[in-house]
């Protein structure tokens, strides 16, 4: 009974909850401890199921109760809310209750309230996290060491400062990374702290793995437990490297400042916030013979001339109170007792926060400048008078010149204009000064002239010297030709300062020049008439004589020689005509890509026939030679003329060399780009400088009358210029002559060679017989053409005009081709006839002929075939065949010269 009483007392006084359950989970007993834990009295709890204790944990209660009812003892933590809503954490142990025979009669539960314990643990973890965050995110480096100085924890900032990773530091002591020179003192302070001493602070260096060192300020303190035992040491490390560098830089800057200040040939000074001198450089000693230290405070007043001292101090005080710039000139007495002038200047000095620190200033000796001022003023006065005189002379010349002159601003605004210009235009300065130059009276009412003058001013302002001729209107509506120019004027620094516009009335000069040109032209025509008349008379003599000889019987060989001579006379006349047309630029150029090697190679037979047997021809055309852009026919004429000139320069025979080479990226005068150099060289007599200077003049020749027209080199010159190139000549007496023609490179591939012409002996076999309508107004030419066509096997109907041709075609007769001259009477040319026939009879081939190719330029552009006069049988046959055969399939126009493709 006593034992039971004791047990009941223990249960009742226990702070833990002690509860007994029947095997079905009904509560049998409930002690006061359970009442405190679960906020439920015994009366409320006894007889209820175990699940009500923790509603949040009701799902687990049957399982756990079943385990205890089967004889297991289990412990678990119960967490949830009681019926009154308060959160509770309880540690519960369930055990089976056994009867005397060992059978299980119930289950007991011992419950301990651990709510406060768990809350304290959570707070501790939160504090640990806060400490860790503070530790890692601290602006300074933090390290925790054991009493021996071995690292236990470090943050990233500390690792960065000492240049070592955490893993490496955890194997070291703080002493291991301290600089050897700082270690003894650091070790003493650390040991004193370990022995119970106070925290300490030290500036020392850490040694990094690469041997470099870093300065740090270390605050070291001890961490002790409740018993006062040392558990660890914490060090707060602040990197001082940048500060140390800044301090060193400041010291160096101060040293440099003092060195520069002491080296300066001027008095440099500084004051404090009260205005007392705190710094004076060594120049004070040099100028006044007193140590700079004697100048500090108010010592500087001793060197100021007494009568200037009050004004000086007053000026400084006023600037000092206003914190404004200080400027004053005063006199001082130097080391030799001489009076000198100083110009003193100073500015207020402030720190980064705007706090006033004092004044910094400089005083410069201006004695020599003061002494020179009067002389300078005198010289300035003299120079001013000289400039005024120069201005008077300039104005006299400016206003007296016969040229119109105006001084312009860079934008074209008129600043000055001379009297000559104003008198010619009858305007005053108010009409033009201050206004744009292109709005002046001579240009009013002429928008094109205004635009041209405005553009000239723009170009001159860009640095170009512009010179042009313009027609302008003066006073009384007088029209004049003005030689107008605009020039830029730059100052000494190369900056555009002004523009000078000048004009000169060249009307009379132009009229005189035109009269001179007309006289020269008449002289040239007279010279040309003599030479050309002699040449054509010779040609007519050959033809006339030859025709007369045909009336007499002669052997075939002599007859053939006579025919050959007549053919050569015709070729010579055609060549002379082409030279005249080319020189007058009435012969149109038809530029196309040309293969020089192939084109000139095709001339070999012609050159051999045109030159003597003692002339040898060599060609040098390297592989990869570019094609050129030129008229192939005119090019052949140039080469032939140059070769004939070379032949005539070698009366005893010699060698002519035809060569070509590429000239990439040429920059020569106005020529820029890729060109090909075509040269014709001889080893003949050469030319004197006087002759070489005139070789390109039209009609100039050193040959006898009838031996040359003087147009060959002039034609070459005109051809090269019209083709976008140039001609150069290199010659000397006894050295021979080389003529070089520069021709632009063509970006296109050359056309395929034209189909070779057929041999005249084969004409009857290949010519398609048919009916040709011949349109020719000249009876002699028409008779010859009719005879040639008939000889080729064609039936011919001849009419004398384009209108007659249209009438002949209107009667329904069958015509296979129309062969018409271009130049005809009646208002309709051969070109107009061809166009009309295209509309009326598009199936009818048309072949045109002309002795003046410029008249057929439009026809060639439209694809109408043209053959040039004079033509041969072979050329006529090929041209008609091409016209008839090619009419079904459109083809380019076929222009022919002397029976050869043009």
List the helices and strands and how they pair.
Elements lengths: L1 H12 L3 E6 L4 E4 L1 H7 L3 H4 L15 H9 L4 E8 L5 E12 L5 E10 L1 H23 L3 E5 L5 E4 L1 H7 L3 H4 L13 H12 L5 E8 L5 E12 L5 E10 L1 H23 L3 E5 L5 E4 L2 H6 L17 H17 L3 E8 L5 E12 L5 E10 L1 H34 L3 E5 L5 E4 L1 H7 L21 H15 L4 E8 L5 E12 L5 E10 L1 H43 L6 H28 L8 E3 L1 H6 L2 H7 L4 E6 L7 E3 L1 H17 L5 E15 L2 E12 L6 H4 L19 H11 L3 E7 L3 E9 L18 H4 L4 E5 L3 H13 L3 E5 L2 H9 L6 E5 L8 H11 L5 E5 L6 H5 L3 E4 L4 H14 L8 E3 L2 E2 L1
Parallel strand pairs: 22-24, 28-29, 28-30, 30-31, 31-32, 32-33
Antiparallel strand pairs: 1-2, 1-5, 3-4, 4-5, 6-7, 6-10, 8-9, 9-10, 11-12, 11-15, 13-14, 14-15, 16-17, 16-20, 18-19, 19-20, 21-23, 24-25, 25-27, 26-27, 33-34
Helix pairs in contact: 15-16, 16-21, 19-21, 24-25
Keywords summarizing the entry:
902 residues; alpha+beta; Beta-Lactamase; seven-stranded mixed sheet; five-stranded antiparallel sheet; PAS_fold_3; phosphoprotein; PAC; transferase; Sig_transdc_His_kin-like_C
What does this molecule look like?
Helix 15 runs antiparallel to helix 16, helix 16 packs across helix 21 and helix 24 (802-810) packs parallel to helix 25. The strands form seven sheets. This protein has a seven-stranded mixed beta sheet with strand order 29-28-30-31-32-33-34, sandwiched between helices. The protein has a five-stranded antiparallel beta sheet with strand order 2-1-5-4-3, sandwiched between helices. It has a five-stranded antiparallel beta sheet with strand order 7-6-10-9-8, with helices on both faces. It is flat, with a radius of gyration of 60 Å. A hairpin with a 5-residue loop joins strand 8 and strand 9. By secondary structure, it is α+β, with helices and mostly antiparallel strands. It contains 27 helices and 34 strands. The protein folds into six domains: 2-119, Beta-Lactamase (2-Layer Sandwich); 138-239, PAS domain (Beta-Lactamase, 2-Layer Sandwich); 253-365, 2-Layer Sandwich (Beta-Lactamase), CATH 3.30.450.20; 401-505, PAS domain (Beta-Lactamase, 2-Layer Sandwich); 588-744, 2-Layer Sandwich (Heat Shock Protein 90), CATH 3.30.565.10; 761-901, 3-Layer(aba) Sandwich (Rossmann fold).
């Amino acid at each position: 009974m006593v034992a039971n009483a004791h047990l009941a007392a223990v249960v009742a006084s226990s702070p833990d909850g002690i509860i007994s359950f029947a095997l079905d989970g009904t509560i049998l007993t409930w002690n006061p401890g359970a009442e405190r834990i679960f906020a439920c009295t015994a009366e409320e709890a006894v007889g209820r199921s175990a699940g009500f204790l923790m509603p949040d944990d009701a799902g687990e209660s049957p399982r756990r109760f079943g385990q205890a009812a089967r004889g297991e003892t289990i412990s678990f933590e119960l967490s949830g809310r009681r019926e009154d809503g308060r959160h509770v954490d309880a540690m519960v142990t369930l055990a089976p209750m056994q009867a005397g025979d060992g059978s299980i009669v119930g289950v007991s539960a011992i419950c301990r309230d651990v709510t406060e314990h768990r809350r304290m643990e959570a707070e501790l973890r939160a504090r640990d996290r806060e400490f860790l965050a503070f530790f890692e995110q601290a602006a300074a480096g933090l390290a925790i060491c054991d009493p021996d100085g071995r690292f236990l924890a470090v943050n990233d900032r500390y690792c960065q400062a000492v240049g070592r990773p955490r893993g490496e530091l955890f194997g070291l002591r703080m002493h291991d990374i301290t600089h050897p020179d700082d270690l003894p003192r650091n070790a003493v302070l650390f040991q004193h702290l370990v022995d119970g001493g106070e925290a300490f602070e030290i500036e020392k260096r850490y040694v990094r793995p690469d041997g470099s060192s870093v300065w740090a300020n270390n605050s070291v303190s001890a961490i002790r437990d409740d018993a006062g035992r040392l558990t660890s040491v914490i060090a707060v490390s602040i990197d001082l490297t940048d500060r140390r560098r800044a301090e060193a830089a400041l010291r160096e800057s101060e040293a440099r400042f003092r060195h520069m200040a002491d080296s300066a040939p001027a008095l440099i000074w500084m004051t404090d916030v009260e205005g007392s001198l705190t710094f004076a450089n060594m120049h004070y000693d040099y100028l006044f013979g007193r140590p700079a230290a004697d100048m500090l405070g108010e010592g500087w007043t001793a060197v100021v001339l007494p009568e200037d001292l009050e004004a000086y101090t007053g000026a400084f005080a006023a600037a000092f109170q206003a914190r404004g710039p200080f400027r004053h000139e005063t006199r001082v007495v130097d080391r030799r007792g001489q009076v000198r002038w100083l110009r003193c200047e100073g500015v207020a000095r402030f720190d980064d926060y705007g706090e006033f620190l004092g004044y910094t200033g400089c005083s410069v000796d201006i004695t020599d400048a003061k002494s020179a001022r009067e002389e300078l003023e005198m010289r300035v006065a003299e120079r001013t008078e000289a400039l005024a005189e120069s201005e008077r002379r300039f104005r006299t010349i400016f206003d007296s010149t016969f040229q119109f002159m105006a001084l312009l601003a860079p934008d074209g605004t008129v600043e000055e204009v001379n009297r000559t210009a104003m008198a010619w235009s009858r305007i005053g300065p108010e009409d033009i000064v201050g206004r744009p130059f292109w709005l002046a009276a001579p240009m009013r009412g002429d928008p094109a002239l205004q635009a041209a003058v405005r553009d000239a001013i723009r170009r001159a302002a860009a640095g170009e010297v512009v010179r042009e001729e313009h027609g302008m209107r003066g006073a009384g509506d007088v029209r004049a030709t003005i030689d107008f120019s605009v020039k830029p004027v730059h100052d000494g620094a190369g900056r555009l300062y002004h523009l000078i516009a000048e004009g000169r009335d060249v009307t009379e000069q132009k009229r005189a020049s035109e009269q001179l040109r007309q006289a020269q032209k008449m002289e040239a025509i007279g010279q040309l008439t003599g030479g050309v008349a002699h040449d054509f008379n010779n040609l007519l003599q050959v033809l006339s004589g030859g025709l007369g000889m045909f009336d007499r019987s002669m052997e075939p060989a002599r007859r053939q020689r006579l025919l050959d001579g007549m053919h050569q006379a015709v070729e010579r006349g055609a060549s002379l005509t082409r030279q005249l047309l080319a020189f007058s630029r009435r012969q149109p150029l038809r530029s196309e890509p040309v293969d020089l090697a192939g084109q000139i190679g095709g001339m070999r037979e012609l050159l051999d026939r045109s030159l003597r047997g003692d002339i040898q021809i060599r060609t040098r055309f390297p592989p990869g030679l570019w094609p050129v852009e030129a008229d192939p026919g005119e090019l052949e004429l140039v080469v032939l003329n140059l070769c004939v000139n070379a032949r005539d320069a070698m009366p005893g025979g010699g060698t002519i060399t035809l060569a070509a080479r590429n000239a990439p990226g040429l920059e020569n005068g106005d020529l820029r780009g890729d060109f090909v150099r075509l040269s014709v060289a001889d080893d003949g007599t050469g030319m004197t400088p006087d002759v070489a200077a005139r070789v390109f003049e039209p009609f100039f020749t050193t040959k006898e009358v009838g031996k040359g027209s003087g147009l060959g080199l002039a034609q070459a010159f005109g051809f090269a210029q019209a083709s976008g190139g140039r001609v150069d000549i290199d010659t000397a007496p006894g050295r021979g002559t080389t003529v070089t023609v520069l021709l632009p490179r063509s970006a296109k591939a050359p056309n395929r060679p034209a189909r070779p012409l057929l041999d005249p002996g084969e004409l009857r076999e290949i010519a398609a017989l048919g009916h040709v309508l011949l349109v020719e107004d000249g009876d002699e030419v028409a008779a010859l053409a009719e005879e040639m066509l008939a000889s080729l096997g064609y039936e011919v109907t001849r009419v004398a005009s384009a209108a007659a041709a249209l009438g002949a075609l209107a009667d329904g007769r069958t015509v296979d081709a129309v062969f018409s001259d271009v130049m005809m009477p009646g208002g309709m040319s051969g070109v107009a006839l061809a166009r009309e026939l295209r509309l009326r009879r598009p199936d009818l081939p048309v072949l045109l002929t002309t002795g003046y190719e410029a008249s057929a330029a439009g026809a060639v552009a439209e694809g109408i075939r043209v053959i040039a006069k004079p033509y041969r049988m072979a050329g006529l046959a090929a041209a008609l065949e091409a016209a008839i055969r090619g009419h079904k399939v459109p083809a380019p126009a076929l222009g022919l010269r002397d029976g050869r493709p043009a």
